[in-house]
Amino acid sequence: MKCSICKEEKLEKGYGEIYGHNAQPINDGRCCTVCNMEVVVPMRIKLFQANVDFRNKKETKTKVEKEK
Ligand SMILES: [Zn+2]
Prior knowledge:
By secondary structure, this protein is mostly helical. It contains 2 helices and 2 strands; from the N terminus they run αββα. It has one domain. Helices cover 57% and strands 6% of the residues. It has a two-stranded antiparallel sheet. The protein starts with 15 loop residues before the first helix and ends with a helix. Bound molecules: zinc ion. The site of zinc ion has 9 residues, from helix 2.
């Protein structure tokens, strides 16, 4: 089985629990440990931070409007 991100044959049969990481939000497939650590996890952090920033902006805006 190939990694859905680097397309390398790293997803050995029987090692699914070790190498078969969920590749979301990059794609719906599975990915190897390397791609998980270097691509998937940073992307999740980025999306999480973007979500937090969005919420913070929303809260700040609400606060400013209340202060008027
Ligand atoms: Zn990979």
